[in-house]
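hey so i finally got around to running the thing on that chain from the lab meeting. sorry it took forever, my laptop kept dying and i had to restart like 3 times. anyway pasting the input first so we r on the same page abt which one it is
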Amino acid sequence: MELKYKRILLKLSGESLAGDNKFGIDSDILDYFVSEIKKAFESKIQLGIVIGGGNIFRGLSKNAVYMDRVNADQMGMLATIINSLAIKDALIKNGVPSKLMSAVQMDTFAEIFTKQKAIEYLEHGNVVIFGAGTGNPYFTTDTAAVLRAVEIESDIILKGTRVDGVYDSDPETNKSAVKFNSLSYKEVLNRSLKVMDSTAITLSMDNNLPINVFNFNIKDNLLRIVKGENIGTTVRG
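ok and heres what got predicted. didnt touch it at all, straight out
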């Protein structure tokens, strides 16, 4: 099978791992994540993953209002490591070789990120999970996903969400919301559309890295995109 992409970066929400519990890791949701990732991996795509930590702690959450922003963001980085370890463990148990690389030094849990080693792991058939964000406060995991995608020379970022693309308003609260099939980076910025934060969009634009936003909760959507189907909303120059 000829694939549309050779290498992708999948960005997933930490909040979605909690399911209806709103906190922590729901084992059924984790199993679903892994089953979808495994199907894409078995197509022989090279796959990197960045997952947020909002199911455990976010630096911008109401729980962090009275905290020093740097400390709060560092706690958020650790939350992404917890989620990354969970995904790595579940993937390996399901026969998918996986590596976890961290933006900050924590040798006991993860290997420090380097571009050369990450690409080597990808080319040797490993899913590579990138944890701890960018390693710096004030940057979201969306920006971390774009940064890692650029560094590993990914063909595209696939952002898995619970809606089927980008709309002009929230489709979960506005029944009349209009979906976009494609957008330019500048349209996203000018309209203040909630695709990714502005730093992530600008970094994508500067590096001509396309973004595809799709509903990860629909079975086989990830695999269908990998095979070349047009699903969700694509953002490019």
